[in-house]
Amino acid sequence: MVVGIIVGASIFVQPSVVTARMPTAGGALLVWCVAGALTLLGSLVTAELASAWPRSGGVYVFLRDGYSPALGFLWGWAMFWSMHSGIVAAIAVVAARYVGTWIPLGDAGTRAVAIAAIGALTGVNVLGVRQGSAVQAALTCVKVLAVVLIVAVGFIAHPRAAPANAPDGSATPSAFVAALVAGLFAYGGWHMVSYAAEETVDAARTIPRALLVGTVAVTALYVGVNAAYLRVLPLGTLRGSTRVVADFADATLGGAGAQIMAALVVLSALGAMNGVILAGPRVYLAMARDGLLFRRLGTVHARFRTPHVALVAQAVWSSVLVATGSYRALFTRVVYTEWIFFGLMAASLLWLRRRPDYRPVFRAWGGAATPVVFAAASLVIVAMQLVDQPRDGAIGLLLVLVGLPVYWIRGRAPSHDSSTETSPRAVLVDEGP
């Protein structure tokens, strides 16, 4: 899940955004390394919190128990209406557009294929955790192999490196930060594995291991594939490319580049989308269990042991966003706000560690420095968005804050008593004794 959700279509797009801001190949690779290091810090924070509270909901639970139910509700509110549903819609449209490489679709056909993909993957995840995770594992293995092959082609099958470009100016701190923000978005989704904690065997230990191994693996893949891009394509070409992997394939394998690119993007998009579809409803289930959403959303299927109502609700809203095209505005305006929650989540460790009832199985390495550095990075990302796009940034923040009146109208959350929760493995796990 960690690798499959992070490695989506963005690694085939974002390298041009990063290199556009960096004057040298070495500087671009440094950005990918630093972005991976910061993602590792976020994973360490999430790993500690998940080992302390291995419950369905992940970030929602961390914000609810670390701060207040209101903050947890705002996270879930933004997730359903924009962040996660918008991600599902956006990825589905990307996959459908690349299916159009083989079959002419047109706008209506592209939307129909995207909605069909959402429906199919939702159906798989309704049928059971085993089925959803099997699809996730298969798609992840295929696309990781594809990324490894890109690296191999770049360094082995393509014997001559591209001519080195003279540095185009010098990297300013603001340019480096802008490139870093672009790189970090390609690492997005690392936290979602924590949503399904109650369906994970020995979650308090398994999720930290998954986060750490998965994040390190993705960083190695990203640095390797960008080194391959930079070896084959001149820096100037890479900066202006809107289809990086296709240009790479054209340069190494000839005219089949477009077909290869389409296959890679479709596989990567489907793998990332399946992971998001699997993870998101676990948050809505936890919120419904706490009385913050309609109880029906917390229903677990009697046979398949999955939150089928929440899965279907997410699919319906994501499909509406695809059909209307409104996911673009929602997603681009609201997605940056998740970093506000990430920063708050990291900062909570500074006082949670002093609470006698806080007993994590795993402790984030680096002491107080880890949450402080990650919280500061989150603040910089939010500030960059507000400075670069003040109108969209303000609208996005307002859309999230609209959830507060809804929370108050709902009568606020009842006090949460973890002792009354049904055994997670009795409720959700789709397996035998």
UniProtKB/TrEMBL annotation:
Positions of region (Disordered): 414-433
Places the protein is found: Membrane
Any GO MF annotation of the entry: L-amino acid transmembrane transporter activity
Membrane-traversing stretches: 29-50, 71-96, 108-127, 134-156, 176-197, 209-229, 260-285, 306-327, 333-352, 364-387, 393-409
Keywords carried by this UniProt record: Membrane, Transmembrane, Transmembrane helix
Domain of life: Bacteria
Gene Ontology cellular component terms for the protein in this record: membrane
Membrane topology category: Multi-pass membrane protein
Protein name from the UniProt record: Amino acid permease-associated region
Organism: Gemmatirosa kalamazoonensis
